[in-house]
Design goal:
heterodimer; A: mainly alpha; two-stranded antiparallel sheet; 2 strands; 6% strand; B: 293 residues; alpha/beta; Collagenase (Catalytic Domain); five-stranded mixed sheet; three-stranded antiparallel sheet; 17% strand
Amino acid sequence: MADESEKTYASNFLDKHPALREAMARSKRLDELEKKVALPKDDESEEQLYIVRGDTVGDEDELYVDALARGSNPETKDALARELFLETDPALQALIIDELKK
Amino acid sequence: MPDDTTSTSPSAAAPAAQDMLSSLKSSLKKITIEDGDVAEELYRVEGDLLLDEDQLEIYAQQREALEKERSLQKERAALGAGDVAPQEGRSSLVGVTSNGKLVRWKPGLVLTYCVLKNTFSSTERYEKAVAGMKQATWAWENTCGITFQHKSELDNSNGTANPGTLFTVREIDAGGQFIAAAFFPNDPKNRRRVLIDPSYFDQNLSFDPVGVLRHELGHVLGFRHEHIRSQAPPQCPDETMADTLDLTQYDPQSVMHYFCGNVGSRTLAITDIDRIGSQKLYGMPFSSFNYVE
């Protein structure tokens, strides 16, 4: 668990918008994405990390927020990210576009 | 990294860029590539880049912007202004920000690393990683004011834990989902690792392996992907733009640009525009000064 000073943009963003964090908890497709991009762990105590933004590493919050940003583009080739975006309600979709793609 | 083709049609260039385009067209060597009955004329730039007409137009716009940037830098220098102040309002090298401020390593901090030998599946791979890191760190040290140090005495440490360097370099089998991966300066400390997938060692790797590490070290220094800019081809992968700041104009040949939408470079070399952007964050390379005690 990262301390407050090390909190990522994604975690802050989700904390600021609880409805989005709830959408994340309800998501039917996030597990699928996690399985796809999970980084192998050296031992059980290690934090589970994922490949985000192509070639950097992040936690579940960063994975979700990155996927939402990508999925907000109707032309994206990332079908799973698009599905994650479309799982959220229209008000949250507007928020994602406004805050993550500005 | 996606390897798409594009039908990019650049918008009409500004007059100055048109002059640059005309000048380039008249001075660059043309090469004809024949494919069956179809022949395409390409312009050769910077030694090893072949550009078609559309790509050359984009290149001319960048060159013109770069000339302007240099001219402004000279003016600022003449006025006694520093080299590191970021210029807002110009479009991109893209820096990471936190609370509205650019993120960089503390001045004077030496970025130490070790290459964890036990994580590599062969000595040959370990040695290739060591050599690649040496060249890639050297390239950044000669680009901006940053120092890396390989603590080779820690390379034989057991396990995967960091034995006391700022970051580690290791092989990890990510199933080819990336060639290599890295971290940003403001990431939690336990993520400070440059990860190298076995695909990096593939004989048929389509990217310059040292270039791949130059790109990853760009992340380590605090640079985001160049292709997330709105000017990049639409085929390039999207990312959130939150917490970023443009340091220079868009540079499709940037070391931080994926090869996507027929833009980018498989050599992943540090360009003049990358140099300008990185110096805004870290200043000039230390080797460019005569130090007086």
